[in-house]
UniProtKB/TrEMBL annotation:
It comes from Paenibacillus terreus. Keywords: Transcription, Transcription regulation. The keyword Transcription regulation applies. PROSITE patterns: HTH_ARAC_FAMILY_2 (PS01124). Residues 204-302 form the HTH araC/xylS-type domain. SMART domains: HTH_ARAC (SM00342). This is AraC family transcriptional regulator N-terminal domain-containing protein.
Amino acid sequence: MEGGEIVPETTNLVQKQKELAELIDRFSSGEGAHATDIPSLFCLRSSKVTEPIYRVHEPALCIVAQGKKEVMLAEERYQYGPADYLVVSVDLPVSGQIIEASAEVPYLCFRLDFKPGQIVELLDESELRAVQPGESERGLFISQTSTSLLDAAIRLIRLLETPEDINALAPMYTREILYRILKGQQGEMLKQIAVEGSGAYRIKDVIKQIKENYAQPLRIEELAELANMSPSSLHRHFKEVTAMSPLQYQKRIRLQEARRMLLAETADAAEAAFQVGYDSPSHFSREYAKMFGLPPIADMKRLRDSVAGYTGREMLESATSMI
Protein backbone atom coordinates (compact mmCIF):
# COMPACT_ATOMS: atom_id res chain seq x y z
CA MET A 1 0.00 0.00 0.00
CA GLU A 2 1.16 3.53 -0.76
CA GLY A 3 -0.97 6.51 0.26
CA GLY A 4 -3.88 4.15 0.78
CA GLU A 5 -3.65 2.85 -2.79
CA ILE A 6 -2.43 -0.49 -4.11
CA VAL A 7 0.94 -0.10 -5.87
CA PRO A 8 0.64 -1.50 -9.40
CA GLU A 9 2.75 -4.60 -10.08
CA THR A 10 4.81 -2.84 -12.76
CA THR A 11 5.60 0.05 -10.39
CA ASN A 12 6.61 -2.38 -7.65
CA LEU A 13 8.81 -4.28 -10.10
CA VAL A 14 10.63 -1.10 -11.16
CA GLN A 15 11.17 -0.15 -7.51
CA LYS A 16 12.64 -3.58 -6.77
CA GLN A 17 14.95 -3.35 -9.81
CA LYS A 18 16.16 0.04 -8.60
CA GLU A 19 16.76 -1.31 -5.09
CA LEU A 20 18.74 -4.27 -6.45
CA ALA A 21 20.78 -1.95 -8.67
CA GLU A 22 21.67 0.24 -5.69
CA LEU A 23 22.81 -2.78 -3.70
CA ILE A 24 24.95 -4.16 -6.54
CA ASP A 25 26.46 -0.69 -6.98
CA ARG A 26 27.31 -0.57 -3.28
CA PHE A 27 29.07 -3.94 -3.30
CA SER A 28 30.98 -3.46 -6.57
CA SER A 29 33.52 -0.71 -6.01
CA GLY A 30 35.15 -0.97 -9.43
CA GLU A 31 34.94 -2.61 -12.84
CA GLY A 32 34.54 -6.35 -13.22
CA ALA A 33 33.08 -9.19 -11.18
CA HIS A 34 33.30 -8.86 -7.41
CA ALA A 35 33.30 -11.94 -5.20
CA THR A 36 31.34 -11.53 -1.98
CA ASP A 37 31.24 -13.09 1.48
CA ILE A 38 28.54 -15.36 0.04
CA PRO A 39 30.72 -17.76 -2.03
CA SER A 40 28.17 -18.31 -4.81
CA LEU A 41 27.20 -14.62 -5.20
CA PHE A 42 28.97 -12.12 -7.46
CA CYS A 43 28.26 -8.45 -8.19
CA LEU A 44 29.18 -7.44 -11.75
CA ARG A 45 29.79 -3.89 -12.90
CA SER A 46 30.92 -2.22 -16.13
CA SER A 47 30.85 1.46 -17.08
CA LYS A 48 31.29 0.77 -20.79
CA VAL A 49 30.20 -1.45 -23.64
CA THR A 50 32.55 -4.43 -24.03
CA GLU A 51 33.99 -6.62 -26.74
CA PRO A 52 32.53 -10.16 -26.90
CA ILE A 53 33.94 -12.21 -24.02
CA TYR A 54 34.33 -15.98 -24.43
CA ARG A 55 34.23 -18.60 -21.70
CA VAL A 56 32.49 -21.76 -20.54
CA HIS A 57 29.49 -20.55 -18.54
CA GLU A 58 28.77 -22.85 -15.62
CA PRO A 59 25.26 -23.17 -14.08
CA ALA A 60 24.17 -19.77 -12.81
CA LEU A 61 21.37 -17.24 -12.55
CA CYS A 62 22.10 -13.73 -13.87
CA ILE A 63 19.78 -10.82 -13.07
CA VAL A 64 20.66 -7.57 -14.84
CA ALA A 65 19.52 -4.69 -12.65
CA GLN A 66 20.81 -1.97 -14.97
CA GLY A 67 22.12 -1.93 -18.55
CA LYS A 68 21.82 -4.67 -21.15
CA LYS A 69 23.75 -7.75 -22.21
CA GLU A 70 23.86 -10.07 -25.20
CA VAL A 71 24.88 -13.72 -25.03
CA MET A 72 25.66 -15.94 -28.02
CA LEU A 73 25.23 -19.71 -27.82
CA ALA A 74 26.46 -21.21 -31.10
CA GLU A 75 24.43 -19.19 -33.65
CA GLU A 76 21.67 -18.24 -31.21
CA ARG A 77 21.50 -14.68 -29.86
CA TYR A 78 19.96 -13.80 -26.47
CA GLN A 79 19.52 -10.24 -25.17
CA TYR A 80 18.40 -9.39 -21.66
CA GLY A 81 18.09 -6.35 -19.42
CA PRO A 82 16.30 -5.36 -16.20
CA ALA A 83 13.00 -6.92 -17.29
CA ASP A 84 14.58 -10.36 -17.71
CA TYR A 85 16.91 -12.87 -16.11
CA LEU A 86 19.14 -15.52 -17.67
CA VAL A 87 19.66 -19.07 -16.43
CA VAL A 88 22.38 -21.46 -17.58
CA SER A 89 21.71 -25.00 -16.37
CA VAL A 90 24.70 -26.91 -17.84
CA ASP A 91 28.25 -25.98 -18.78
CA LEU A 92 28.04 -24.10 -22.09
CA PRO A 93 30.74 -22.40 -24.19
CA VAL A 94 29.25 -18.98 -24.89
CA SER A 95 30.26 -15.42 -25.67
CA GLY A 96 28.82 -12.46 -23.81
CA GLN A 97 28.89 -8.77 -24.57
CA ILE A 98 27.65 -5.80 -22.56
CA ILE A 99 25.76 -3.72 -25.10
CA GLU A 100 24.32 -0.96 -22.90
CA ALA A 101 26.42 0.76 -20.22
CA SER A 102 27.97 4.12 -19.41
CA ALA A 103 29.86 5.85 -16.61
CA GLU A 104 26.62 7.57 -15.58
CA VAL A 105 24.45 4.44 -15.85
CA PRO A 106 26.76 1.42 -15.49
CA TYR A 107 25.86 -2.16 -16.25
CA LEU A 108 25.02 -3.87 -12.95
CA CYS A 109 24.36 -7.59 -12.61
CA PHE A 110 23.59 -10.06 -9.81
CA ARG A 111 25.09 -13.51 -10.52
CA LEU A 112 24.32 -16.54 -8.39
CA ASP A 113 26.15 -19.77 -9.18
CA PHE A 114 24.45 -23.06 -8.34
CA LYS A 115 24.91 -26.81 -8.65
CA PRO A 116 22.48 -29.23 -10.34
CA GLY A 117 22.35 -31.10 -7.04
CA GLN A 118 20.58 -28.11 -5.46
CA ILE A 119 17.80 -28.48 -8.04
CA VAL A 120 17.53 -32.20 -7.29
CA GLU A 121 17.13 -31.46 -3.56
CA LEU A 122 14.47 -28.82 -4.18
CA LEU A 123 12.40 -31.14 -6.35
CA ASP A 124 12.73 -33.94 -3.81
CA GLU A 125 11.71 -31.77 -0.87
CA SER A 126 8.99 -29.61 -2.44
CA GLU A 127 5.66 -30.26 -4.09
CA LEU A 128 6.94 -29.09 -7.45
CA ARG A 129 6.07 -31.54 -10.19
CA ALA A 130 9.11 -33.02 -11.86
CA VAL A 131 9.15 -33.22 -15.65
CA GLN A 132 8.79 -36.62 -17.23
CA PRO A 133 11.76 -38.16 -19.02
CA GLY A 134 11.55 -37.39 -22.71
CA GLU A 135 12.67 -34.65 -25.03
CA SER A 136 15.48 -32.35 -24.01
CA GLU A 137 15.37 -28.57 -23.95
CA ARG A 138 18.00 -25.85 -24.24
CA GLY A 139 20.39 -25.50 -21.29
CA LEU A 140 20.14 -21.70 -21.44
CA PHE A 141 17.03 -19.58 -21.27
CA ILE A 142 15.79 -16.06 -20.58
CA SER A 143 12.58 -15.37 -18.66
CA GLN A 144 10.72 -12.38 -17.26
CA THR A 145 11.72 -11.12 -13.83
CA SER A 146 9.09 -11.16 -11.07
CA THR A 147 8.82 -9.19 -7.83
CA SER A 148 9.00 -12.41 -5.81
CA LEU A 149 12.33 -13.34 -7.45
CA LEU A 150 13.72 -9.84 -6.96
CA ASP A 151 12.58 -9.86 -3.31
CA ALA A 152 14.56 -13.04 -2.67
CA ALA A 153 17.61 -11.69 -4.52
CA ILE A 154 17.49 -8.46 -2.51
CA ARG A 155 17.27 -10.38 0.77
CA LEU A 156 20.30 -12.46 -0.21
CA ILE A 157 22.51 -9.53 -1.23
CA ARG A 158 21.44 -7.54 1.86
CA LEU A 159 23.08 -10.24 3.99
CA LEU A 160 26.39 -8.65 2.95
CA GLU A 161 25.46 -5.84 5.35
CA THR A 162 25.29 -8.32 8.25
CA PRO A 163 27.99 -10.95 7.62
CA GLU A 164 27.19 -12.73 10.89
CA ASP A 165 23.84 -13.79 9.36
CA ILE A 166 25.24 -15.29 6.16
CA ASN A 167 25.85 -18.87 7.32
CA ALA A 168 22.35 -19.20 8.75
CA LEU A 169 20.30 -17.35 6.12
CA ALA A 170 22.15 -17.44 2.78
CA PRO A 171 21.27 -21.11 2.09
CA MET A 172 17.58 -20.36 2.76
CA TYR A 173 17.46 -17.34 0.46
CA THR A 174 19.40 -19.19 -2.24
CA ARG A 175 16.88 -22.04 -2.09
CA GLU A 176 14.05 -19.54 -2.41
CA ILE A 177 15.64 -17.95 -5.46
CA LEU A 178 16.01 -21.34 -7.17
CA TYR A 179 12.48 -22.26 -6.13
CA ARG A 180 11.14 -19.06 -7.76
CA ILE A 181 12.92 -19.95 -11.00
CA LEU A 182 11.51 -23.49 -10.92
CA LYS A 183 8.02 -22.03 -10.45
CA GLY A 184 8.56 -19.46 -13.20
CA GLN A 185 7.46 -19.43 -16.82
CA GLN A 186 10.33 -21.65 -17.97
CA GLY A 187 10.99 -23.64 -14.83
CA GLU A 188 10.57 -26.88 -16.78
CA MET A 189 13.79 -26.08 -18.63
CA LEU A 190 15.69 -26.04 -15.34
CA LYS A 191 13.94 -29.10 -13.89
CA GLN A 192 15.19 -31.31 -16.73
CA ILE A 193 18.76 -31.42 -15.36
CA ALA A 194 17.46 -33.01 -12.14
CA VAL A 195 15.20 -35.69 -13.61
CA GLU A 196 16.95 -39.03 -13.85
CA GLY A 197 16.36 -40.52 -17.25
CA SER A 198 15.75 -37.22 -19.06
CA GLY A 199 17.91 -36.46 -22.08
CA ALA A 200 19.53 -33.48 -20.38
CA TYR A 201 20.28 -35.51 -17.24
CA ARG A 202 21.92 -38.27 -19.29
CA ILE A 203 24.19 -35.98 -21.29
CA LYS A 204 25.52 -34.12 -18.21
CA ASP A 205 28.27 -36.72 -17.88
CA VAL A 206 29.02 -36.40 -21.60
CA ILE A 207 29.42 -32.64 -21.27
CA LYS A 208 31.74 -33.17 -18.29
CA GLN A 209 33.77 -35.77 -20.18
CA ILE A 210 34.28 -33.49 -23.21
CA LYS A 211 35.06 -30.45 -21.05
CA GLU A 212 37.66 -32.27 -18.95
CA ASN A 213 39.29 -34.07 -21.90
CA TYR A 214 38.84 -31.50 -24.69
CA ALA A 215 42.35 -32.06 -26.08
CA GLN A 216 41.75 -35.78 -26.65
CA PRO A 217 40.16 -37.26 -29.80
CA LEU A 218 36.37 -37.41 -29.61
CA ARG A 219 34.94 -40.94 -29.66
CA ILE A 220 31.19 -40.72 -30.15
CA GLU A 221 30.59 -44.42 -29.44
CA GLU A 222 32.21 -44.11 -26.01
CA LEU A 223 30.24 -40.97 -25.22
CA ALA A 224 27.02 -42.66 -26.32
CA GLU A 225 27.77 -45.61 -24.03
CA LEU A 226 28.42 -43.18 -21.16
CA ALA A 227 24.96 -41.65 -21.71
CA ASN A 228 23.34 -45.05 -22.32
CA MET A 229 22.12 -43.82 -25.72
CA SER A 230 22.66 -44.68 -29.34
CA PRO A 231 25.07 -42.36 -31.17
CA SER A 232 22.20 -40.78 -33.12
CA SER A 233 20.14 -40.24 -29.96
CA LEU A 234 23.13 -38.73 -28.17
CA HIS A 235 23.73 -36.35 -31.05
CA ARG A 236 20.08 -35.23 -31.06
CA HIS A 237 19.78 -34.70 -27.30
CA PHE A 238 23.19 -33.05 -27.07
CA LYS A 239 22.26 -30.54 -29.76
CA GLU A 240 18.88 -29.84 -28.18
CA VAL A 241 20.55 -28.91 -24.88
CA THR A 242 23.71 -27.15 -26.11
CA ALA A 243 22.68 -25.90 -29.60
CA MET A 244 25.70 -27.68 -31.06
CA SER A 245 27.00 -31.16 -31.80
CA PRO A 246 29.54 -32.86 -29.49
CA LEU A 247 32.29 -32.10 -32.04
CA GLN A 248 31.30 -28.43 -32.25
CA TYR A 249 31.18 -28.24 -28.45
CA GLN A 250 34.69 -29.69 -28.22
CA LYS A 251 35.97 -27.29 -30.89
CA ARG A 252 34.66 -24.25 -29.03
CA ILE A 253 36.19 -25.46 -25.76
CA ARG A 254 39.53 -25.98 -27.52
CA LEU A 255 39.56 -22.56 -29.17
CA GLN A 256 38.45 -20.73 -26.04
CA GLU A 257 41.15 -22.47 -24.01
CA ALA A 258 43.77 -21.63 -26.65
CA ARG A 259 42.73 -17.98 -26.54
CA ARG A 260 43.01 -18.05 -22.75
CA MET A 261 46.59 -19.33 -23.06
CA LEU A 262 47.45 -16.57 -25.52
CA LEU A 263 45.94 -13.91 -23.27
CA ALA A 264 47.80 -15.32 -20.27
CA GLU A 265 50.99 -15.31 -22.37
CA THR A 266 51.79 -18.89 -21.37
CA ALA A 267 52.12 -20.14 -24.97
CA ASP A 268 52.51 -18.87 -28.51
CA ALA A 269 49.99 -19.77 -31.21
CA ALA A 270 51.73 -22.99 -32.33
CA GLU A 271 52.18 -24.23 -28.76
CA ALA A 272 48.58 -23.39 -27.86
CA ALA A 273 47.35 -25.25 -30.93
CA PHE A 274 49.13 -28.47 -29.95
CA GLN A 275 48.18 -28.18 -26.27
CA VAL A 276 44.46 -28.00 -27.04
CA GLY A 277 44.56 -30.93 -29.47
CA TYR A 278 45.30 -29.59 -32.95
CA ASP A 279 47.86 -31.43 -35.07
CA SER A 280 48.13 -28.62 -37.61
CA PRO A 281 48.86 -24.99 -36.61
CA SER A 282 47.46 -23.79 -39.94
CA HIS A 283 44.18 -25.67 -39.35
CA PHE A 284 44.06 -24.20 -35.85
CA SER A 285 44.66 -20.68 -37.19
CA ARG A 286 41.82 -21.02 -39.72
CA GLU A 287 39.34 -22.25 -37.12
CA TYR A 288 40.50 -19.62 -34.63
CA ALA A 289 39.91 -16.86 -37.19
CA LYS A 290 36.49 -18.28 -38.04
CA MET A 291 35.43 -18.13 -34.39
CA PHE A 292 37.12 -14.92 -33.20
CA GLY A 293 37.25 -12.94 -36.46
CA LEU A 294 41.04 -12.76 -36.76
CA PRO A 295 44.00 -15.19 -36.69
CA PRO A 296 45.68 -15.58 -33.28
CA ILE A 297 48.47 -12.99 -33.63
CA ALA A 298 46.19 -10.33 -35.13
CA ASP A 299 43.51 -11.07 -32.50
CA MET A 300 45.97 -10.57 -29.65
CA LYS A 301 47.20 -7.29 -31.16
CA ARG A 302 43.63 -6.03 -31.54
CA LEU A 303 42.83 -6.93 -27.93
CA ARG A 304 45.97 -5.25 -26.59
CA ASP A 305 45.36 -2.12 -28.66
CA SER A 306 41.78 -1.92 -27.36
CA VAL A 307 42.90 -2.09 -23.72
CA ALA A 308 46.25 -0.29 -23.87
CA GLY A 309 48.20 -0.45 -20.63
CA TYR A 310 46.85 -3.83 -19.56
CA THR A 311 49.02 -6.94 -19.37
CA GLY A 312 47.81 -10.19 -20.91
CA ARG A 313 46.94 -11.56 -17.48
CA GLU A 314 44.98 -8.44 -16.60
CA MET A 315 43.06 -8.72 -19.87
CA LEU A 316 42.35 -12.38 -19.09
CA GLU A 317 41.02 -11.57 -15.61
CA SER A 318 38.83 -8.81 -17.03
CA ALA A 319 37.58 -11.02 -19.87
CA THR A 320 36.67 -14.06 -17.80
CA SER A 321 35.06 -12.13 -14.96
CA MET A 322 32.32 -10.30 -16.83
CA ILE A 323 30.22 -13.16 -18.17
